[in-house]
Amino acid sequence: MADLQWYVLRAVSGQEKKAKGYIEGEINRKKLSEVLTQILIPTETIVEMRNGKKYTREKSFFPGYILMQADLSQPEVAAVVLNIPGILGFLGLEGKAIAGGVKPTALREYEVKRILGQVDEETEKGATLQGGFLVGESVKVIDGPFADMIGVIDTVFDERKKINVIIKIFGRDTPTEVSYSEVEKVQ
User: What distance in Å separates the CA atoms of residue 15 and residue 84, rounded to the nearest whole number?
Assistant: First the structure.
C-alpha cells in the first residue's frame, strides 16, 4: 500500500488549471495513478452582477498553490511533477530539487480536513454572490414584483445574500427584502 500524504505545490499564479492538466496527463501516460491519486485546486464559484447581468467565475482559495495526494517515496513521482511547466516546486523546499531524499513537509491531517471541508462546503453552498452593497446606497430592482423601481439600501444581510431596500410606493416608504441577484447598483 502506498504511503499517501497531501503536499502543496507552488505554481505560477493563474496557471494552476493548466499545470494540473499537465500533471494528470503525465501521471496517466507514465501509469503512476496509484502513487499520485488526487490533484486539487481549491476554488469557489463567484457570481457577480454587472450592468444587470450575472457573470460567473471561479476564484481560487489559495492562488498559486495546488494540493496533491501522493506517495513521494517513489522518486519518479516528484521528478514528473517538478518537470511540469508552471510548477515552481514544493512548498517548504527551496527550488525544485529534492536532494538527498529530503521530502517536502506533508500537510497535517487536520489541515487537509479543514481545506477539503471548506471546498465541500463551497460546493454544497453553490455559487457565492458578491454584491459589495452598502447601507444608504441607491439600487434598482431588476427582478420580481418591484422590477424597475429604485430604492435605498436599509440593511445588508451578507450571510443570506439579501438586502432590505426602502422603495417609495404611492408616496410611502416600503421596506422590501430582495436577494443580491434581484438588484443592481445605480450609478
Answer: 12
**How many whole angstroms separate alpha carbon 41 and alpha carbon 43?**
6
pLDDT average, residue stretch 133-146 = 85
Domains of the chain: 5-129 (3.30.70.940), 132-185 (2.30.30.30)
**Rounded CA separation 26/10 (Å):** 18
Burial of 83 (0-12, 13-18, 19+ CB in 10 A): exposed
CA distances from 59 to 14, 16, 62, 172 (A): 10, 11, 9, 42
pTM over 0.85: no
